[in-house]
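Working notes for the structural subgroup meeting. M.R. asked for a predicted model of this chain before we commit to crystallization trials. I am recording the input and output together here so anyone reviewing the notebook later can reproduce the run.

Input as submitted:
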Amino acid sequence: MNDKEQLDQLVLDYQALKNEIHKVIIGQDEVVDQVLIAIFSRAHCLLVGVPGLAKTLLVNTIAQTLGLSFNRIQFTPDLMPSDIIGSEILDENKQFKFIKGPIFANMILADEINRTPPKTQAALLEAMQERAVTAAGNTYPLNAPFFVLATQNPIEQEGTYPLPEAQLDRFMFNIWVDYPTYQEELTIVKSSTNDQVIELQTVLNAQQIIDYQALIRRIPVADNVLEYAVGLVTKTRHADPMAPQITKDFITWGAGPRASQNLIVAAKCHAALQGKYSPDIEDVKAVAKAILRHRLVRNYRAEAEGYSMDNIIEALL
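Returned structure, recorded in token form:
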């Protein structure tokens, strides 16, 4: 199968995936799209939303439809790095043996990631970046494909440890999960308060996902799209000559080169899922907010004048 045929097949598989996911998840179309883009882009994402918006259910449903192993780690203030990556124990033969932790799965749900101290967050950081973990001097590779989908509660910040910028930068997307509409909530309440069991079909397997990830990387990108993406990121740095007035007024810290890389990879994937063989500037714009909103630091003036991160990115676009 050549690349063009494989891209056509990806569109069909993507539609089948969405149909399966929407058997369980009502609405949240954009959220589902962005999580799937992150998966096909070989990236991680952060889901931010108030409790009860089915963030955990969404991740579990996607893992089932993709035929992947799934582990949920509940992050708490007393969670230790060894609780995530595993630890060495002395077996009956007085030999040290490594017992793998829950990180050894294809899909990890890091629930309420900001509730755990920086030491434990850092253990996850290595796994996300290197796709391997180190314990007692030995390095253990993680299963491919490997994704971390972390959730964070935007309210009730007592007893939380905000994620450092270096860790936030490891996430391709910061996905805002909003309340359902009135009609969607009616459907959710109707379907979730009876004893109906929904059977989910597996649409893809691990090897097919790895093949699609490689395919996305091979998609060609025109120079003008590359220039637009890099120019957009450069405009977020207030010391840069290209920076517009809004950046100088409201942003203290701009996005790094990883944002430019993520914009291009995500735009390729967005284009592919829409049935296009190469991304254009509209594809970059479509993924820009989710990629930039956790990489920029607003100043006090922006907060005082009510400029949200999305307002600022909208102006830059």
